[in-house]
Every structure is written in structure tokens, then in C-alpha cells.
Amino acid sequence: MNNNNLHQKKILFGNKVEKIDKVDDKAKKKKILFVSPFSGKFAALSQFHAPPLGVMRVASYLNKKGHYSEYFDPNLHACNNKGPSLEEVIRNTDWDIIGFSLLDETLLEDIKNIYLARSLKPTALLVAGGVEAQFNYQQILDKTPCKIVILGEGEVPMLMLANGEEYNKIPGIIVKNPAKALSQELFNEATDAIPWEKINYEDYWAVYKDMYGDQWTKELEDSVNTVRVFSRNRCPIGCKYCSSTFQLTLATEGKVPVVSQTEESLIHVIKRIKDAHKNVKMIYLTDDDFIINKRSVIKFCKLVVEHKLNDLKYMAFSRITDLNEEVISWLKKANFVKLNIGVESFSERVLIEVGKRCPISEIDPVLKLLKKYQIRPFMNIILTTPETKMEDVEVTVDRTIEYIKDPFYMAGIIIGIQPLKGTLYYEEYTNFKSYITDIEGTQFKIRRDDYIWATDPKVKKLQELYLDRQADYIKEYIAQNNIKHPNQAVLAPAHLYLVKEIIEEIKLEKDSNAQNLKSDLYMKEGAGRNYKNSPLYNAYMSGQDDASQKKSALNKNRQFRGIKITTA
Questions:
Q1: What is the Cβ-side half-sphere exposure of residue 352, based on CA atoms within 13 angstroms?
Q2: pTM score, two decimals?
Q3: What is the assigned CATH class of domain 184-382?
Q4: What's 291-343 look like in SS3?
Q5: What is the average pLDDT across 188-215?
């Protein structure tokens, strides 16, 4: 086929030759290929085959408007093996635009074809349309090289694309326009541009002072009168439950360097805040991991001391692996008083599963060092993960309780991992605790995903019982301890002991089931004689009594023993 003859063309694998009006020689003609959905190995099993009218219609319309357009039906080719393959069709013409019609049931094969097109024609504009593209456009833009998704009917937007219209003037399209990551210089400039002096922090602080009323204390003031500051664009670690690592790389379609404010520029920001807000007490460095660069942190601490900014208090996020005695000693000199630390679990297996990159052996020494230097750690704890075993939960609960019995240590407890979009867990698991809620004032509903259910049935039962009981349990704990202003640290004991109670309950149920099974054997053994005199029966009954007593004591225990209430 002579691709230079644009006055009359045949649509590939169509039975009809479309004549088109002679085009304006001054117009810039585009070569456009449309590919219909592909059923893959199931194509030959279909009981009904027919031409793909949707892509045929769009292709024909564009031809009539003066462009050169063809369509390809991969299902027909898979069945009769006539004519060139899709690869040959793509390779043999310098296509300007290649459009794909997508269906849910054919999506995986369609994506393969999209990537084939990208490899063969890297400069062609790839466009997706069809039902699946319309209702799942975010995934199509994220997971394929398609730059544009067409919503609804494709004739008008495709013609405007072919005619070279600006994207913002084309109705019914969603454009993937990759972001440009900030350079170090631009990041510093943008951060410095924040109007720290004009932000009404005092109004925010007053809200909490009014809320606490006569319970307001100097300790609370030091905690509440806080200004949050960030210095880094992202965290590079890549924990499977966290989206921080992937947010920018997805947006920019590539690797994004970690950029930070210089230590000097951060000091400059803190000076501005201190000069403008006389009642500020604390600077909260909210980077996902402020301490990740030890050399930089030590330099920052030295500058804090040098500029006499250590009359302010500081807190930050950190990983266990960031901290050693040299770093901690400099944090102390700079007046860091708290560190928010992602401990997550006291199980080595769980830490490996979540991609924490932290040996379990490093946790205790670091926590002890922090106490030595009187920098309070707030331990973030995740009790269950998709692959958690009951013993992992038990060791984490017991070790956390052991720590927070000392009021110096604080903890925040979550029962499981939420499948946040952009995380590896969201990609790997489908067994979410989900719920459907109405969107008020509309006919629509929305699905929300809460937690990932554990694959271990005992741990899943633990999750279910916890979620069912925790609201009432926490309410009872607050009332019993007369807690006026609950927060994560204050409520940590309640969460931990609720989980501990449920674990014991599941164990007792297992023991009871085992005993019931034994009892059937005991009864059979005693058949035909006085079975109550059987040593086996007596042993069974004794065990049953023990279990009953344990369960009774468990149900009555609501004293939340051994834990002192900790304030944040």
C-alpha cells in the first residue's frame, strides 16, 4: 500500500473501501491507527465474531475529514492469521497517533499491545478510549504509556487531536502530563517563599488553649505552640505501606532525586518563625525521615547551637537505623525533646515483610540511648500486616506494653495497614476491609478501603473482633480513667490490652475445641461402665474447669492493669 496516496485509502481488514474527499494540500495530515480490544488466546473460542464497529466508525470519520486512518482487529487476525500482524502494521507505517479501545475483560492483552506500540513507535501519541478507559482512566494513565484518555465518544476529540488543537481546548479528554521535579535551587526558593511571618499560628494555638481551659499547663503549651516545617521532598526508603517514595516518581514518570533545603536555609526559616511568632515553643520537622542524612543532621544541630536557637524545642520523624549515640548527643544539644519513630513491629519477620530495612536487634539499644539522653520516642506500631502470624502480634503487643509501662515511652497503635493508593501493598492485595457509603445529595456511592485482612485465619479473626469491640472498649477506658483529652499516646494501653484480651480469648476457644474433641473420646472410653470414674474423664473435667475460670476472669478484667497513663 502506498502510504503517500492520501486521496483514497482502504481500512485494513475492513471489506469496504472508503472514498474521501480530496484533502486540502495545505492541511497537515495525520496517520492514525486504531486497535480494537483483543481477547488473546480466547479469541478463537468465541462463538461470535464481528467487525469492531466502534473503531471503524472513528477511523472512517477521520478519513472523511482528510486524515489517513486505519483500524486493526487483533481478534480476527488471531483466528484466520491473514494479512500482516499488529506488529507488522505498526512497524510498516510512521503513525502519528495510535488509539486503543479497551474493555475490562480484554485489558491485560490490550495493555500488552499498548506497550508493543510504544516499543515500535516511541514518538507516536498513544491514546486510550472505550468503556474501561473511561471508568478506570487513572489506572490507564498510571500503568500504560498512553498519554491521553478519551471520555465518551471519540470522533470529535480524535479529530481535534489529529488537527493539532491544544489539549486544553479539546473536550472529553484527560491528559497525562508528567510533572517536572523541582531542582535543589527551586526547592529552596519555593520553601523560602512560604510567608511564615503572615501565617496565623496564634489562632490555631488558641483553639487548644480554649479546649483545655483550666487544665492548660506549661507542658501542654510547649507541645501545642508548635510550627511544622519540612525540608525534604520525599523519603527514598520504599516501605511497602507508605506512598511517600512513589508519589513523585509516578508523577514524573521516572526517578526523582531526594532534594533538601540546605542546613543554612533551614536555620534562616526557623529564625523568621521565631522573630515573627514570640510564643512559639516547638519546631516540628515533619519530613518522613528528617534524620536520614546523619552528617546533615549533625551540621544542622551545630548551627542551631551556634545561632542560639536551642531555646526552642524540636521534634522530628526518624528511623531506628538513623540513630546512633553521636547523632542522639547532637540532637540533645540542639534541644530535640521528641522523636516520632517508625518502630512498626518487634517481629523480625514483619519488619522484613513491610520492607522496613531495620534489623530487630537495633531497636532496643536505640530506645535505651534515647532515654539516656532524655529524648522521648513516640513509637508507631502496626499490629497486623497481610502476612502476620499470631506470634508476631503477641511479641509486638507484649514488648510495647513493656515499654510504655515506663511513662517516658509513648506509642501510637493501629490494628492494621490501610491500602493507600500508590503503595506496594495496594498493588499486591485485594482482601481489603471495605465499605460503601452514599455521597450525600447525589445518586452515587463511593467505596472506601479500610484495612488489609490478614491471610492467617486466626489473625483475621483478631482483626474482626478488635474492629467490632474497640469503640466500646476505648469509651470504657476513657470513662474509667477520667481522661479529658484523649490522644494516641494516652489511649495506647487500651488498644494493646484489648488485643491482648482477644488473643487470650482465641487461645481459650482453641483449647476448648480441643477439649471437646477429647471429651468425645473420653465418653466413648467410659461407655458400658461408670465413665465418671475414668481418670481420662476427670482430667478432661479439670481442664475444662481451668479454662472456664480463665475465661471468667478475662471477662471481668476491665482494670487495664499495670499501665500508667502517658501524656504526649
A1: 7
A2: 0.76
A3: alpha beta
A4: CCCHHHHHHHHHHHHHCCCCCCEEEEEECHHHCCHHHHHHHHHCCEEEEEEEE
A5: 90
